[in-house]
């Protein structure tokens, strides 16, 4: 069951590169600098990749981030699986799951959270937006 909104991630892609073609399509990597707001506030540096299939749809991808909170805590973030589709040339709607790892005593609750996220990639404007929700256990 979809739970509480944990955070909003708004970022700018600081670099975008296209890797060697793979059988599934073209690998696109993006480095992102983001501002985080919500139950966790701070900033993150992120690296994401996505396979854009020959027909222009995204196939799958993953990402990782280092989030630094406004209080000085660090959180490792892993986006182990994501998928999406093109909504217009260079713009994609994406979704997936997310996990967290931290030694912060105030944020240790994140270590037990499996999250889901949805968002957009706008390659033309280099904008990145993601909303992260807790994926709750059924009651």
* Largest sheet: spatial strand order: 1-2-3-4-5-6-7-8
Characterize the largest beta sheet: strand count, sense, and whether it forms a barrel. 8 strands, antiparallel, barrel
Report the β-strand fraction as a percent range: over 45%
**Count of extended strands:** 8
The percentage helix is: under 10%
Q: How does this structure look, described?
A:
Strand 4 and strand 5 form a beta hairpin. The chain is built from no helices and 8 strands. It is mainly beta and 139 residues long. 0% of the residues lie in helices and 70% in strands. The chain has an 8-stranded antiparallel beta barrel. The protein starts with a strand and ends with a strand. It is globular and about 45 Å long.
Using brief descriptors, characterize the structure shown.
139 residues; mainly beta; eight-stranded antiparallel β-barrel
Secondary-structure blueprint:
Blueprint: E1 2-18, E2 26-38, E3 42-52, E4 58-69, E5 74-88, E6 91-101, E7 114-122, E8 127-135
Antiparallel strand pairs: 1-2, 1-8, 2-3, 3-4, 4-5, 5-6, 6-7, 7-8
In short:
The protein has strands spanning 2-18, 26-38, 42-52, 58-69, 74-88, 91-101, 114-122, 127-135. With 139 residues, the protein is mostly beta strands. The radius of gyration is 15 Å and the shape is globular.
């Amino acid at each position: 069951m979809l739970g509480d909104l944990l955070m909003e991630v708004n970022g700018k892609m600081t670099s975008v590169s296209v890797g060697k073609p793979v059988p599934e399509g073209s690998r696109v990597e993006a480095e992102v600098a983001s501002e985080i707001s919500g139950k966790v506030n701070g900033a993150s540096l992120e690296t994401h990749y996505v396979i854009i299939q020959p027909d222009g749809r995204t196939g799958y991808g993953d990402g990782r981030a280092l989030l630094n909170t406004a209080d000085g805590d660090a959180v490792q973030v892993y986006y182990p699986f994501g998928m999406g589709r093109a909504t217009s040339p260079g713009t994609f709607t994406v979704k997936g799951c997310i996990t967290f790892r931290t030694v912060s005593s105030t944020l240790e609750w994140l270590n037990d959270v499996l999250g889901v996220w949805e968002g957009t990639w706008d390659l033309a404007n280099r904008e990145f937006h993601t909303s992260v929700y807790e994926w709750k256990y059924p009651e």
